[in-house]
Amino acid sequence: MQKLDSLHLINNLQRDVSDHKGTSGKLVIIGGASTMSGSIVLAGLGALYTGSGWVKLIPLDANFPSLIEPHPELMIYQTRQRLPADILEEINPDVMVIGPGLGQNESSYTWLLAALEYPAPLVIDADGLHLVSQYPELNERICNRAHSVILTPHPGEAGRLLNCSSSMVQSDRMRAIKQLISQYQAIVVLKGHHSLVGMPSEDVLTCTSGNSGMACAGMGDVLSGALGSLIAQGLHHNLNPWQATCLAVEVHAHAGDLLVDKGVGPIGMTPSELAKEMRSILNASSKQSS
Q: CB within 10 Å: which end of the chain, N or C, has fewer?
């Protein structure tokens, strides 16, 4: 089993003096339905603290704006009953993330279809994965996309995608991720203790960093935002979606270990703290290489 070893790729993200927010990655995050608005905020923080130059949230909760006063950097797009495809065409993102707090209703499904049809890399997480498991026709759409799809299931979500139990996934995680890669022809991150990362043309890699303090709601949302952020930056900084995925997974897990080393956890470690620690890792590595 090969170990994930990607932190050196941080060097690719070093910025030129002429860089601007457009060359630092334009990211859209879709989700945040009623009662689940915090998920999309955490994904947004994961994106901001890992360097995305432009993060726009598309919340499905009409009362959402009052929840983000502490984070004015997160731009909000109010849908106002417009068609999702028209909104995405207007925003023109480099990368999309869909799923954190998305919900599982007709509106959620319509947004997922629009995201799958839009020509840009797409991270599907959380409720987005639930929808994929419920609607078999989405499998073909994912397989036939010209742009990368990144699926980020935890064991329960992986079980739903594979029509089996989470305990069966956990009993043979390597087999499970290989089945997911084959079924969806996508980059897959199977989260959990020693997360696995793989895609059709690459060997499956094991992330040996991370700890039990990261067993907290919202950690996956931060990861999905970071994935979108690093993939979007990579489009302008010689980092392909596979490399960016590997880097995001390892930085996320490594941040959890560093927080424990500093006495922040494992008990009580929060996703917001982890997002800021990811920023520290990215900047510390850049300084060491300069």
A: C
Alpha helices in the chain (DSSP H): 37-49, 84-91, 106-117, 127-134, 137-143, 155-162, 166-171, 173-184, 219-234, 241-261, 271-289
Contact between residue 244 and residue 227 where contact means Cβ atoms under 8 Å apart:
yes
Single-letter code of the amino acid located at 50: T
More confident residue, 49 or 285: 49
Find out if CATH 3.65.10.10 is the number for domain 24-285. Answer: no
Quick check: 170 and 196 in contact, CB under 8 A? no
Give the closest residue to 270 by CA, choosing from 78, 83, 42: 42
Number of H helices, E strands in the chain: 11, 10
The answer to whether the predicted template modeling score (pTM) of the entire model surpasses 0.85 is yes
Per DSSP bridges, beta strands 149-151 and 122-124 are parallel
